[in-house]
Structure formats: C-alpha cells, structure tokens
Amino acid sequence: MTHEEVRQVVVDIIADIAPDEDLSNLKGDLLLREQLGLDSMDFLDIVMELRKKHKLEIPPEDYPKLATLDSCVSYLSPKLIN
Amino acid sequence: MNQIYDVVVIGAGMSGLAATIRSLMFNKSVLLLEMHSVAGGLNSYYKRGSREFDVGLHALTNYAHPKNQNKNKNKNQNQNKNALLKVLRQLRIPFEKMQLEQQKSSMIDFHYDGCTLTFSNEIELLISEIGARFPREIDNFIKLLEEINSYADDDLYRPYISAKARVAEFISDPLLVEMIFTPLLLYGSSWENDIDYSQFVIMFRSIYLEGFSKPKGGVRTIINLLLSRLKDECACSNKDDKDVLQFNKRVVELKIDRDTKDKEWKIKLQSGEVFKSKIVISTIGYQETLHLLDNKSKNVVGKLSFTESILILDRDVNYQHPKHQDTSIIFYNNNSNKKFSYQRPTDVAVDKNSAVICFPNNFGTSSERVERAESTESMVRFSMLANYDFWSNYSQKDYSMEKEKLLEETKILLDKIIQSDNQDKYKILVHDIFTPKTIYKYSGHLAGSVYGAEIKLKDGKLLPYENLYIAGTDQGFLGIVGSLLSGITIANFYVLKEQE
Questions:
Q1: 10-residue block means of pLDDT along chain B (500 residues)?
Q2: Which CATH number describes the domain made up of B4-37+247-299+454-499?
Q3: How far apart are CA B319 and CA B368, in angstroms?
Q4: A interface test, pick of B25, B71, B89, B90 with most A CB neighbours within 10 Å
Q5: C-beta atoms of A18 and B89 within 8 A
Q6: Could you give the CA distance from residue B384 to residue B460 in angstroms, rounded to a whole number?
Q7: Which one of A20, A44, A54, A56 makes the best mutation probe of the B interface by having the most chain B beta carbons within 10 Å?
Q8: Can you give the pTM of this predicted structure?
Q9: How many CB atoms lie within 10 A of CB B415?
Q10: Nearest CA in chain B to A17
Q11: Which of B26, B81, B489 sits opposite A37 (nearest CB)?
Q12: Cα–Cα–Cα angle for B440, B444, B448, nearest 5°?
C-alpha cells in the first residue's frame, strides 16, 4: 500500500467510528484525540477495526503510535504491505 | 452442546444488550440469556389495546447534540466527553435514529415550603431561578458549578464521600441543598438520603448541565435500535441472532470447575440446560449474582423501590396550562421542615409525600407539543417511593385494594398539581399500576430494587471469582445511558483486552 492508501484505511475506520465528525480537514501532524475528541474507547475501536478488516494485531504498548494520522501511516505502512 | 463460548451475558437489559453488541463487534462467540420473553430489563414496554406503555424510562439524561459537542472542545480540554454520544458512537447507532425530543423544562416543587425551581437543558435557567429565590446563595452556587466542572470523574477507587456534606461546604441554605438533591437522588441514588460525591457530580452533570430528552417512540425506540444492531452484528459474522439472544432462559446456577485447566464457567438454566463460557458478564445485580454462586457471604439487597402509576387522560392537561404548559417532569415534595425524605418508607406501603410526575407527551418543540395536544389523549406517569415488604406480603385481595387506594391518591395529587376545576375535568381513560412486587417479578431485582445495592463494583470485578464481571446498575453507572455505558465498558475492558 502507498502512504496515501494507508492514510485512507485509517480515515475510513475513523469515519466508521465517528460518523458525525467532519474528516475533510484532518491535519496529519495534530493529535487525533484533540482534533476529533476521540477518547481511549475510540482508540480501542481503531485497534479492533484494524484487526477485523486487515488482520493486524496491535499490541497495547504500540497504541501511542496511533496518536496522529502521520504516526498511524508510518507505523502501519510496513505492516500493511499488501 | 459442548461449545465453550467466549462470553455468556446474563440479562438482556440495556447493559446486557450493549455488552453483547460490543462482544460481537470483537468477533467473539457470545450468548445472551434473558429470563423474560422480551428485552429491556428494568426499562421495557408493553401494549394494551392500541395503546403503548413504557416502563422504567421517564427520560434520558445526558442530552447533547453531536453538532454542538465540538464547540466546547477547545474551551476546556479536560471536559469529559458526553456519555450519550460516547455510547451511541461505540454502538454505531446514528444520533438521528434516536429521534430525541428535548424537555422544555422540569420543576422541583417543594409544595409544603411553597418554593419551586425550574430547570431546562440550559443551565442558565436554573442559575436565574436560584438567583431569584435564593439571592444570597447565587455566588455559592456558581462556585459549586465551577467545582463540578473541574472535577475529574475518572478515578474508580475514590472512597465514599457524603455529597450532602460536601455540597453544604458551598451552600448554606438547607432548603436549597435539599432542592438541588431531589432530582439527583430520585433518578439514581442507591443510598438513602444521600449519594456518593463522585456519583453526585456525574448525576449533576447528566441532569442539570446536559439535561433530559426522550426518544419520540419512548423506550422501545432504544430497545429496537439495540436489537437491530445485535442482529446486524450477528449477520456480519454469519450467526443467527436467535442463537445469540435467547429468551425465556432463566439462569439458576453459576459454577466454575476448579479442576480443569481452562477454568470455564458452567451456566445452568432452570430447564437443566448447561452452557459453558470463558467469561461471564452478569447484569442481574450484585446480590442476585451471589445467589447464583450460592455465596451467602453478603447481604447487599438495595432498599429503594418505587410504585409507578400510569394514567391515560382524555385530554392534554399541560396544554395551555398556566403553570405547567412547558413542564416535562415535576419532582414533587410535600414533606415538612424543608426536607425531602429519600428512603424506603418504613410504616406505609407508599410514601405519598413525594413523587416524580412525568408528562411524556410534553417533550419536543412547541409545535410538536401543540400537534400532540390536539390529538386529545395524553399520559401521566407517577413514581413514588415504596416498601417492597408491604407489597409482597399483601394477600391477593389486599394487594388489589391497595392498588386502588394508590390510584385514588394519585388522582388527588394530579388534581393538586393541575388544579383543575370541576367544571371541565379530565377523565381517566385507562390506568395501570406497578409495585415493587411487579418490578421483582419482571426484572428479578430482589426487593424490587431499582438502583441496586449501596456498594457498587466500579471495576466490575466480583472477587474472588475470576472471569466473572458485573455490569449494569450494580457496576455503578445509572440510568439508561449509564447502563449502556456500563455494558460497553465492561466488554471493552474484559472481553477485548483479555486476549491481548
């Protein structure tokens, strides 16, 4: 997957979790938590969807790597090779 | 039947449905067992003739609109996210599908003291009411508001602090303290005459700062949305929802085989059927779960129960009423000495000195309410503190007689509030009355207890048992929003995280 595709994977999951949020102006370097008001329960859902849709297991110690859109892309890109 | 489920959930009330949906979302094998033939638990519904009745829910607390949620985001980073929106998001229920109608306003009516306070979903109204009635307390109330706004409610292990004692440090007029507490106690305290301070803060926010709303279709809207989400999740994983949610299945025993390595739970039904699971989430209550375990170490049966009287009137009594045109709920208190007595009545079956009076038709915008008023019929619901022992010990004859007496009392109270003249008086078309005995019969909650045990198991663990968790009322979150949040939280913590 290209970085752009990985980014889309994450945005699609967030759109699923937070249907009422406007995702068109998401900044890659800002905390998702603050831009969208996501809390730890929502991050759990991102982890859950990655597992369901992409068979990815994210260990709890790596959760901080999902903090921003950019960090998601750099963390997930090597894992989402296909 | 040798399948070992990942999770067995006991009770298809709000928390059980939520825990099941979340577990299904995690791709777990789940079985939800309900003793009754319908879902909902303490909040349910039924039909009589062409009329639909709700039981339990008067109103949802924690009102918020997703569009307004972001406005406050930058103002206060510490602000806790709204629980209702959090719950809907976690369960993937679109906000619009709830069809929520906001209250116009509600009233705390201390009849004996001749003092009322009106509040709405905008705190400014309550502030101005307190300013008008208690001018010397208004600065103190503002300080209390600031304290409540800055309170972090994420620490599960805080010791019990008396909320009345804490609030009295801010507000000196005992009448105002009692009035502020009345709706909060009636809508969710399992303690008599007080509440834990952290619980007080949660209740204060959910009622005074966020406020009341009601789905247009009542509680069945919520239950149907949950059932349809459960069905969707079953379909996603090729399960038949009839295998996942099973009705008329009463659990009579919970046992764990200590010899097997895997330590799975055996869940025995009244029919003799036995299911096995790795995790059990019980939503039936603390004491009720101890009974299934045959554990006699504690007695934590909750004390507080209510009667509920539902009247269908031939007209809308709020419509063009000088005082109650906009009233959705009245928290009525007629005790003397500036006191509201929130306790199980000791020498009478029902405490007639206080009541929650709900006008379910009087939610929504003015035009919606006018439209409904013109369709003539309306409903009034009365909840009054009641003593379970009285109601359960009555002979069948006395039981019906006492219900009739309660109906008469209810009518007197309605007349007092509506002050209708006899010239053109409303007629009661239909009525129905529930007692603590009814609550026990349909929900299984011992002593008809509505808010459960005084002791809450905030982390959901029922020690020393492993892989057995309590969700719902006795986990500590109350009301419909609280119960849903409880089911979600317990599933998130112990079902999703367990495998990691």
A1: 89 98 95 96 88 89 83 46 92 95 96 96 98 98 96 79 96 97 95 94 96 94 97 94 97 87 89 96 97 92 95 87 92 93 96 96 84 81 97 97 96 87 79 95 92 92 94 91 96 77
A2: 3.50.50.60
A3: 12
A4: B89
A5: yes
A6: 30
A7: A20
A8: 0.93
A9: 14
A10: B89
A11: B81
A12: 30
| Look-up of token digits 């409610």 | B153
d(C-alpha A23, C-alpha B214), whole Å: 30
Distance in Å, alpha carbon of A63 to nearest chain B alpha carbon: 12
What ranges make up the beta strands (E) of B216-289?
A: 245-246, 251-256, 265-269, 274-282
Assess if residue A24 is contained within a domain. yes
- As a whole number of angstroms, the distance between CA B184 and CA B204 comes to 7
Neighbouring-strand partners of residue B470: B282
Half-sphere exposure of B466 (CA within 13 A, CB side): 8
Residues constituting chain A: 82
CB contact under 8 Å between A52 and B27, yes or no, is: yes
- Complex-level ipTM: 0.83
The CATH number for B78-216+303-450, chosen from 3.40.50, 1.10.3470, 3.90.660, 1.10.10, is: 3.90.660
Tell the residue number behind the tokens 């039924």, with chain if given: B46
Chain B neighbours among A 7-66 (CB < 8 Å)?
16-20, 34, 37, 39, 41-42, 44-45, 48, 52, 57, 59-60
B90–A45 CB contact, under 8 Å? yes
